[in-house]
Amino acid sequence: MTGDRVDDRSDHIAIIDELYSAATEPECWPEAVAALSRHLGADGAAMVRNVGQQEPISHVGGGADLDMVELNGYVQGDKSWVRAAQKLALGDVAVLDVPGDHRPSSCAIPEAPTVRHVVYLSLPSLTGPTGVGGLAVHFSNVGSTILEEAAELLRELGPHLDRAVWLSQRVDHGRIVQQRLNHMIHAAPHPVVLVTATGRIAAVNAAAATLVDRRDGLAVDRDGHLQATSPKSRRALETLFLAAAAGETIPEAVAVDRTSRSQIRLLLSLLPRDRALPVADPESEPILLLSVIDPEHPQYTKAEMLSAVYGLTTAEARVAVLLATGMGRERAATRLSISLETLKKQTAACFRKLGVSSQAGVAHVVTAMPGARPRPHAV
User: Residue 173 is inside which H or E element, if any?
Assistant: First the structure.
């Protein structure tokens, strides 16, 4: 027990600020819990869930003198304090005694103090049908007056801590959704761009970055806005972005002119806007997902995709692509400069790896893959 808590209102406000800061930056929770522990004059603290139940324990610990990663050691022996904590009403605080010596033998800090008391706050935001949770603040040998003072402070801070945990869960959910969207964009084999209402690029995958770097049809201006290189297509794209920002109906696809080759096609997906304080930064959220179809530059060939997804060898993938065009086996063997017997063996391997039993089945799988579509051939 450090016993050096100073009951100062400025410190109190600083702790509240730290809790709400952690709500928006979830990786800061261990630091916030450690600061809260110091503010209460404790040896350590941890936000815990499912302690003493069959489900795995989850926790966020903090404290300069206590390795809270070893929290599980405190519930291997007598669990009377855990059972008492689970019976607390939501939002309530209690001082609980920890009988016996419950300092974990595997604790990474040899001089870590023995936990004798726990001031426990039951948090509604960590409690639900699948678990019970709260904040466990750990003390060694201290007097009842200090424990009661810590409990009273925790009662004052409890609503702020609970709200910060709730906000953190909401923020983290939004982050996960955004991360999944980003992963989806970068996993796409074709060019994909996210733009805002003004056409500012919010995200771009490698294939799209290569496309705009060529400045052949699409480019990025000095302010980071997506634009068409053709004046006519540029005006059309600007009109499209304005219509999307206004919530108007937009086409499913638009064509973008190029100087000497076939047009680029943009497949458009309107994304839901973030409704939280849009007046604060109306251009902060992407509103359009643009999938770029460039017939002159397929990002992956069919053979490369088949090898990556189904594990076909390079030779087997070439056979599959030719079979998908409807080409006969003898002609395919001639095209690949292999014997008919070799082609039969590679065809059998294609059937097995693709999970099909006919040339039509191969064609179905291959044509469903992204990349350049095979041109049909006569059998």
Answer: helix 144-187
Asked whether residue 357 falls in the same domain as residue 267, the answer is no
Distances (CA, A) of 367 to 116, 306, 327: 68, 11, 14
Q: What is the pLDDT of residue 214?
A: 86
- Same domain? For 71 and 157 the reply is yes
In the chain the first and final C-alpha atoms are separated, in Å, by 85
Looking at per-residue confidence, does 327 or 55 come out higher?
A: 327
Give whole-number Cα distances, 43 to 3, 5, 34, 78, 137, in Å.
9, 11, 9, 20, 8
Q: What is the pLDDT of residues 249-284, one digit of tens each?
A: 888 888 899 876 778 888 888 776 655 555 555 555
Contact indicator for 296, 261 with CB cutoff of 8 Å: yes
CA distance 3 to 142: 8
**DSSP summary character for residue 98:** -
Residue 83: give the domain boundaries. 3-179
Judging by beta carbons within 10 Å of its beta carbon (0-12, 13-18, 19+), is residue 275 exposed, middle or buried?
Answer: exposed
Look up the pTM and report it: 0.51
Q: Which residue has the tokens 């605080």?
A: 93
Q: Do 145 and 225 have their domain in common?
A: no
Does residue 45 belong to any structural domain of this protein? yes
Are 141 and 254 in a shared domain? Answer: no
Distance CA 60, CA 48 (A): 7
Number of Cβ within a 10 Å radius of residue 362: 22
Same domain, 223 and 242: yes
242 and 99 in a common domain: no
CATH number at residue 259: 3.30.450.20
Do you know the residue count of the chain? 379
Say if residue 340's pLDDT is above 90: yes
pLDDT: which is higher, 343 or 298: 343
Is residue 240 within 8 Å of residue 225, measured between CB atoms? no
Q: How many domains does the chain have?
A: 3
Residue 45's domain is classified under what CATH number? Answer: 3.30.450.40
Residue type at position 182 = N
